[in-house]
Amino acid sequence: MRWKKIAVISACIMAFGITSYASGGVESIQAYLNHDFKFTLNNNAWVPKDSDGVVLTPVILNGTSYLPVKAVVEATGGEVQWNEATKTIAITSANGESVTTKQKEFTSEELRVIQEKLRNYWDELGRTYSIRLMSVGSTQEHLEVEIRKFGEFEKNLSGEEINSIKKSLFKFVGQEFPLKLEVIQCCRQEANIIGEIIKTDKVNKKVLIENHENKVGNSDNPDATWVTLTEDGKIVVKDSKQLQVFSDLSIGQQVKAWSVGITFLSYPGQASVVKIEIQSNK
Prior knowledge:
Helices cover 17% and strands 43% of the residues. The model is unreliable at 1-23 and 95-103 (pLDDT under 50). The protein has 5 helices and 18 strands. The protein is an alpha+beta fold. It has a 5-stranded mixed barrel. A 4-stranded antiparallel beta sheet has the order 1-2-5-6. A 4-stranded mixed beta sheet has the order 9-12-11-10, covered by helices on one side. The longest helix has 15 residues, at 159-173.
């Protein structure tokens, strides 16, 4: 195990890389750097780095491992700020799927102006981070934005990616603003469209799925929805990783589908789906 003996000073310095140690609360200690540690974040390999991209090595002190506060918190979607006047490290947490940042108060009209300004930025943001905007709206308190990954839509966005997206939005607007950013992840929950394919439309590449176990309101009409695959959508067979094509869909198949965005409540309904899973052939 490659350990290197070092001298470290105060948690503040570890967190922010401060080079001036002239503080009454600073105490010299003896610790070690361990270069053999590996890290995972949400089950994915993770390498802690500082804001300049330099790889960080954990410090071992009295049998306990330490990493800089800033690197760890920002990797999980949070924020860290240093108040020099009060010698305070302020940590704002995030849960990895939903990030709420509250700064100064904004009027509802100011938030609508920000929403309108961002209209010209969504395409660029989507290309940069491989995401798709699902919805955006403003309340009296904050801007609400829903996004999803594009392509690998069954994977989570990392905390670092969420934090970076948030910062990009602030940079484009020119200031921080109250933001609720929610990431929609496909296919963790049960499919919301289940049933049998009763029609196919090869021209428009959509299929009509009926569920005779569910009725519409008080009528005898079965639940029915025309579904269309999104640009990055995929068709699979249950318990198989092999991808299918639209021509593999046929009348009589039992399928499940996961929709994204708005489902139009006409009869039959209409929905865009990111995944169709063939359960069985009739």
